[in-house]
Write a structure and sequence with these properties.
The protein has four helices and 16 strands. It is an alpha+beta fold. It has two domains: 77 residues, OB fold (Dihydrolipoamide Acetyltransferase, E2P) (Beta Barrel); 159 residues, 3-Layer(aba) Sandwich (Protein Transport Mog1p, Chain A), CATH 3.40.1000. A hairpin with a 4-residue loop joins strand 2 and strand 3. It is elongated and about 75 Å long. It starts with a helix and ends with a strand.
Length: 298
């Protein structure tokens, strides 16, 4: 009996030893779970996020979380933005120039398309010819709007006009009945663009006699040229250096060639006044606007 028990015990011990040895071998071949191993490094990498910069002109919102910008190369681009940029974007106006920082994120399943997400937007100025905010540097001494005095049908009244910057380095206040092209200096009446004035900033070495000869040649094709004396000039242009007129015989359209010094520089105004109902209102508004011209300071 004792011999049988000893034999069974020996067999059980042998089985136990073999089992433990097998477990030890399996554990050695399995992955290590101890701290400091490379288990985390074997995880897939996140897609790379690229931060880029750009400059352009703000044109508005495409939706509540997307802005549109015309880049300096003329390409339109859309950028998404989050709640953190709401305040900066809310103060932007159409045609404000801006600098951008944005993330370029890959879109899953798309090889060429990227998601552009704003991380910073800064207003750098206002495009030429647009109405700036009052805190813009180039309008520091002039408010964005101003009440101008003009005389209509014998009555003096005040009317609001907005400041616009021209490419020639000056600004003026323009009424909402006009359209001003800052690149060409052409001011036209919205109701009838034939009512117009071409503004030209003259060189510093202007000779008035040369301007009179030039103006006379320009107006001679329309009719007999008259030099208007100070006594006969409209009140708003009495202090002009030169005032010439000519009238088209067939249509009655009046052409004026006026040279006037404003803010230390000479300007010439080629004014076209057709015969029609808008004539009086056009002249009064145009003279009031032209008299607000000032040079822009750096």
């Amino acid at each position: 009996m004792r011999k049988k028990m000893k034999k069974r015990t020996a067999v059980l011990i042998t089985i136990l030893v073999l089992t433990l040895a097998a477990c030890g071998q399996n554990g050695a071949s399995g992955p290590s779970t101890e701290p400091g191993t490379d288990q985390e490094n074997n995880q897939p990498n996140e897609p790379e996020v690229i931060v880029k910069e750009a400059r352009g002109t703000f044109t508005g919102l495409a939706d509540s979380h997307t802005i549109e910008v015309i880049l300096e190369n003329g390409e339109p681009q859309a950028y998404q933005f989050g709640e953190s940029l709401m305040e900066e974007i809310s103060i932007l106006q159409e045609n404000d120039t801006v600098s951008l920082k944005y993330e370029e994120k890959p879109i899953e399943g798309e090889d060429t398309l990227k998601q552009l997400v704003l991380i910073e937007i800064i207003k750098t100025g206002t495009s030429v010819g647009t109405v700036p905010n009052e805190d813009d540097d180039n309008s520091e001494s002039r408010p964005a709007t101003q009440e101008l005095t003009l005389t209509l049908e014998g009555m003096t009244e005040q009317k609001e006009a907005s400041i616009i910057s021209a490419a020639d380095g000056y600004s003026l206040y323009v009424f909402d009945i006009f359209t001003f092209n800052p690149e060409t200096g052409l001011l036209t009446m919205d109701v009838d663009p034939n009512y117009a004035v071409q503004i030209e900033k003259l060189p510093a070495d202007i000779q008035l006699q040369e301007q009179e000869e030039k103006g006379t040649r320009a107006l001679a094709e329309y009719g007999e040229v008259e030099v208007v004396s100070e006594e006969k000039r409209p009140e708003a242009m009495k202090d002009a250096s030169l005032f010439l007129t000519a009238k088209e015989e067939r249509s009655g359209t009046l052409h004026q060639y006026i040279v006037k010094e404003l803010d230390g520089s000479d300007f010439v105004f080629n004014i076209i006044i057709p015969v029609g109902e808008p004539s009086e209102g056009f002249v009064a508004h145009v003279y009031a606007s032209l008299n607000t011209i000032e040079l822009e300071r750096e």
